[in-house]
Amino acid sequence: MADVQNIPAGATTTGSIAVAAESTVATRMSAPPSFDVADFPVPHGREEEWRFTPLERLKGLHDGSATADGAIKAEVDAPEGVTVEAVGRDDARVGKAGTPVDRVAAQAYSAFEKATVISVPKDAVLAEPVRVRLHGEGGTTFGHTVFDIGAFAEAVIVVDHTGDGVRAANVDILVGDGAKVTFVSVQDWDRTAVHTSQHNALLGRDASLKSVVITFGGDLVRIHPRVNYGAQGGEAEFYGLYFTDAGQHQEHRLFVDHSVPNCRSHVTYKGALQGDDAHAVWIGDVLIQKAAEGTDTYELNRNLVLTDGARVDSVPNLEIETGEIVGAGHASATGRFDDEQLFYLMSRGVPADLARRLVVRGFFAELVQQIGVAELEERLITKIEEELEASV
User: Fold this and answer.
1) pTM
2) C-alpha count within 13 angstroms, C-beta hemisphere, residue 382
3) Which residues cross the membrane (predicted)?
């Protein structure tokens, strides 16, 4: 075992701006995974998986009082050869990638009417991305989407969330043997929206997944990416970018379950925060089971606090049950604006506002470049510029 970095429990930056902490049990939950919402107690906010989430802002998703009274406009742009189906809960592909791990995800599974299955055939190499646009039109909606990627196929998938409403959904990503998938989920909701989603990925032998989660909008957004390895040789990369404004709660909770030998995972999430009561939460759980010899894993979370009044909770968790691994480590860092970088740029004639933008763009550049879709990368850079303009 090599390169294990520990974050001291309760390490705190200046004042109450940000907190980094490490719990002792990465997989501790109040109830085991289940498709049945009745198997989960109603959370009260003291549970490990809910302790950072303002339950009163979930609009009843957590206690069963939310009803499917809303509408969401869904559009799918599927390249040639890709099929789109509406299926029932009894379809074998629905739920194959993973089981709900909290009451809201189970509620979403129990409440959807038809699941959408988008399939990429074996050996297909898509020249254009699969694009899914979901536009909330108010009220509460539930959903379930399955992306079924055949063996040795290559695909880029972009799911774009806009509009308003309350949305709880599950996403399954089935990556066949030798397949390569980039999955991008953009949360660009209106300011009052609520969105919770569990992303489940199941990787076949020598399969690779790149997950990119981008969060800007919403009043409360809670995304839970998870990956399971079905065979040896799987590789998962998780990237995340979030920009949290005054009053927003943005929470990203990852779980990587290394249960088979010779697989790899890498996690990099970065966030910027500004304004009073801006609150970002990042939970990174990695479990290396006893059978998972030859595992190589690393996770990193970095946060840039732009103003007073913002708060970050960053919790990296790493459990290792075998010493026969290539490497395992994690790191978490939260800080204010780098005055030295600003001074360097301003001393060379760069105006303060422009210097500030350049520093933030540089902070996020690594993640934006991972998307691989030029027009989406440009859109995100523009969005970051708009966020910075609003704070001036």
Assistant:
1) 0.90
2) 7
3) none
